[in-house]
Q: What sequence folds into this?
């Protein structure tokens, strides 16, 4: 029987090569379907790529005859929809690695299991971003650039408040990282131009940069409190999926498929329909 696989250009070929069994992969972009099919044909892999919308009611048809539904790092409602399709089709096995919990169609998170539905916990999209707000895979270079950019932004904010009396934070759009190497003064001139602000003469750029760096460390300390809840919240969301599968008659195991240094989204849910 064919297996439905999402996330796909790497996962699908590996799964097909290792087992020799057919795989059906659902993908939104036609170009990726074509590239994947060409790769599969070239390497004689039993794979079929289907262009389609995972949120379309017809997407469930691809799960009806499969014996194992797989989604690796499928974002938000994508993996939830696959779980629902698998449950409705009574698919024999399900393997899910959740990711990007905030990418949902509703304004608030809609629990799956009866236990989670009975909870008073109400999560909006901003809450659901919390598990993803960590950088365990980022190198020292990335962290250093983040320190510079955030310090520049906070220093610019301090400048506006002190010299122009602007009381609210003025968001500045994304910046080319190369511009950061030109220094704080150049950043402020660029940011002011982008926001249509005229800067006064005689600005102590060195002093405002120092203030921005102080604020960076204060923000980091405040974020530490939020950090404590990142993994517990993710596990609450994961367990909602586990409990839902159990309620639908699946035997479920929960584990990690790699070290968190490789990817913090390393949780793997595996369900097998009880006989």
A:
């Amino acid at each position: 029987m064919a297996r439905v696989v999402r996330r796909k250009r790497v996962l699908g070929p590996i799964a097909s090569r290792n087992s020799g069994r057919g795989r059906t992969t659902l993908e939104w972009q036609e170009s990726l379907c074509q590239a994947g099919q060409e790769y599969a044909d070239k390497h004689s892999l039993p794979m079929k790529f289907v262009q389609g919308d995972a949120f379309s009611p017809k997407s469930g048809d691809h799960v009806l005859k499969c014996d194992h539904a797989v989604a690796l790092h499928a974002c938000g409602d994508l993996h939830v929809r696959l779980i629902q399709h698998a449950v409705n089709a009574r698919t024999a096995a399900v393997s899910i690695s959740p990711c990007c919990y905030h990418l949902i169609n509703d304004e608030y998170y809609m629990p799956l299991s009866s236990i989670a539905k009975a909870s008073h916990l109400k999560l909006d999209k901003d809450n659901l971003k919390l598990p993803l707000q960590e950088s365990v895979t980022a190198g020292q270079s990335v962290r250093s650039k983040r320190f510079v950019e955030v310090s520049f932004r906070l220093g610019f904010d301090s400048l506006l408040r002190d010299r122009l009396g602007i009381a609210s934070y003025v968001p500045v759009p994304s910046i080319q990282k190369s511009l950061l190497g030109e220094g704080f003064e150049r950043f402020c001139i660029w940011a002011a131009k982008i926001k249509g602000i005229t800067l006064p003469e005689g600005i102590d750029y060195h002093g405002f940069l120092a203030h921005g760096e102080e604020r960076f460390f204060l923000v980091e300390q405040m974020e530490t409190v939020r950090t404590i809840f990142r993994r517990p919240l993710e596990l609450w969301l994961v367990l909602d999926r586990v409990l839902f599968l159990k309620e639908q008659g699946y035997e479920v195991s929960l584990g990690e498929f790699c070290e968190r240094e490789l990817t913090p989204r390393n949780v793997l849910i595996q369900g097998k329909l009880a006989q």
User: Anything to note?
Assistant: The chain has two domains: 3-107+114-120+232-273, 140-227. DSSP finds ten helices and seven strands in the chain.
